[in-house]
Design a protein that fits this description.
Layout (H helix, E strand, L loop, with lengths): L1 E2 L6 E2 L17 H16 L4 E3 L7 H12 L6 E6 L4 H15 L4 E6 L5 H14 L2 E7 L6 H10 L4 E5 L11 H8 L2 E5 L6 H6 L16 H10 L6 E2 L6 H9 L8 H12 L2
Parallel strand pairs: 3-4, 4-5, 5-6, 6-7, 7-8, 8-9
Antiparallel strand pairs: 1-2
Helix pairs in contact: 1-2, 1-9, 2-3, 5-6
């Protein structure tokens, strides 16, 4: 469990993303049932942060159908985004998201990829003040726009920030992660597997024998434990459509985590492959 600096609330360090994996044919019963099974397993295993966006096609609709069918989602931390221009369109989109999720209130609303953030952030702060949402954040991905994100983190009232960080994409270590720690901003990490790129590059190699020292039995846990062991990281949100992969991911939130010396050893190992 990790603490949200703004409130002291705790959330699990491994969550679930929905980009691509939940953008399915909504009329395909088999596909829909498989995603609902993912949600059920995620919540049953103590998963918390479930992240989506209007950009992800029908992902929010799939989540809403799943939550309604499961009808038991204790521990859920709902996180979605506003991804449009203009105050009125943003308000309409956010209300539609809440309805798609089927929840009275969403936990975290984020400005997706900083789109029109100057307009949306005041709206989100007002919604938080009124009790319509609980937390406010902004996101970026692909390692882009870090300078602008840094400016926002320094000048705006944020509870959360979301960006890319993994064993190959470590630019965030320079400024964003230390700044989040300094400012008391919770950090959600997207693309923890580099959209599968880490598996493509490394899974043909054996996991080092010393990985058992941090309770790793597969590469997914190796990659995730590196991320969530960073002192500024609150949660990572790997996406998957496979239950077995979900179980592997969630397991990274259990057992021993690497200390700074072990993190360096992990990096040295992959850099020499």
């Amino acid at each position: 469990m990790r603490i949200i600096p703004a409130t002291g609330e705790k959330i699990p360090a491994v969550g679930l993303g929905s980009w691509l994996t939940f953008a399915i044919d909504i009329d395909d019963d088999e596909e829909l049932d498989s995603r609902i099974a993912i949600l059920r397993e995620f919540l049953a295993r103590g998963g918390g942060v479930l992240d989506s966006s209007p950009m992800y096609g029908v992902a929010q609709q799939v989540i809403g159908i799943g939550l309604k069918r499961i009808d038991q989602h204790d521990g859920l931390f709902s996180a979605t985004k506003v991804w449009t221009m203009g105050n009125r369109q943003g308000f309409i989109q956010m209300d539609e998201s809440r309805q798609l999720w089927g929840l009275d209130k969403l936990d975290l609303m984020q400005v997706h990829n900083l789109l029109d953030w100057e307009t949306h952030l005041p709206t989100l702060l007002a919604m938080k003040q009124q009790g319509d949402i609980r937390y406010v954040g902004v996101t970026t991905s692909h390692g882009r726009r870090h300078d602008e994100l840094e400016h926002i983190m320094r000048t705006q009232q944020l509870d959360f920030v979301q960006f890319t960080y993994n064993m190959l994409d470590r630019e965030a270590e320079k400024t964003l992660l230390p700044l989040a720690k300094e400012k008391g901003i919770a950090v959600i990490i997207n693309r923890p597997f580099q959209r599968g790129g880490l598996f493509d590059k490394f899974e043909r190699y054996p996991l080092p024998g010393w990985a058992k020292e941090i309770d790793c039995v597969n590469w997914a846990q190796f990659f995730l434990k590196f991320i969530i062991s960073h002192p500024a990281v609150t949660c990572a949100i790997p996406a998957t459509s496979q239950i077995e992969h979900l179980r592997e991911n969630i397991a990274a939130g259990y057992g021993r985590l690497p200390d700074e010396l072990m993190r360096k050893k992990m990096l040295a190992y992959i850099e020499n492959l």
